[in-house]
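Researcher: We're teaching a course module on how sequence relates to structure. For the next exercise, students receive a sequence and then see the predicted structure as tokens, so they can try to spot secondary structure elements on their own. Here is the exercise chain.
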Amino acid sequence: MTSQKSSSVSPSSYAAAIEERLTESIRTKERVRAGLIPVMEQATRLMIEALEQGSKIFFFGNGGSAADSQHLAAELVGKMFIEGRRALPAIALTTDSSNLTALGNDFGFETVFSRQIEALGKPGDVAIGITTSGQSPNVLAAVTTARKMGLKTIGFIGKDGGKLKGLVDIAIIVPSDSTQRIQESHITIGQIICELIEAHFAR
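Model: And here is the predicted structure for the students to work with:
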């Protein structure tokens, strides 16, 4: 498992630092390939089944994981590379600034995703929480609410999986302790899954 690197790098050694981090990123993805293909397949099949039944996919996370949520939702609503397939219902719960600030102010930041799940989620929908540590309180709260409401749940996680791995139906745990390498692998995993979903619905 890769470890978090110090951000202190001498200007004279930038090239070596770049090579080191690229190598670390490649090795992390090699571990993803070696260990995560079965759970990636399970997640793909779960999402396809939900979409076939008219259900929705929710993505949520903080910081870089919020950006990943928006990126992956856009891949499903829009397209990746196949023209003519129908739009697929995917929602990033990270984009509505009025909701996020009102919920954070009135109920507390831990509720900013769970309250939206409560409002928008239906049994059969899929809630995908993205957190490199598996410990983000608002992601844990949203997944807990989703399970109570009958949604299926997937976690994009890293490190040891944290608390989230025990809450979700499918835990995709990137084998690394480096936040950066985990985030790089999360978007790779997510785009592969979205590509397979698109191919399915383009048939």
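Model: If you want an answer key for the exercise: The beta strands are 57-61, 90-92, 126-130, 152-158, 170-174. Residues 22 and 100 are 35 Å apart (CA to CA).
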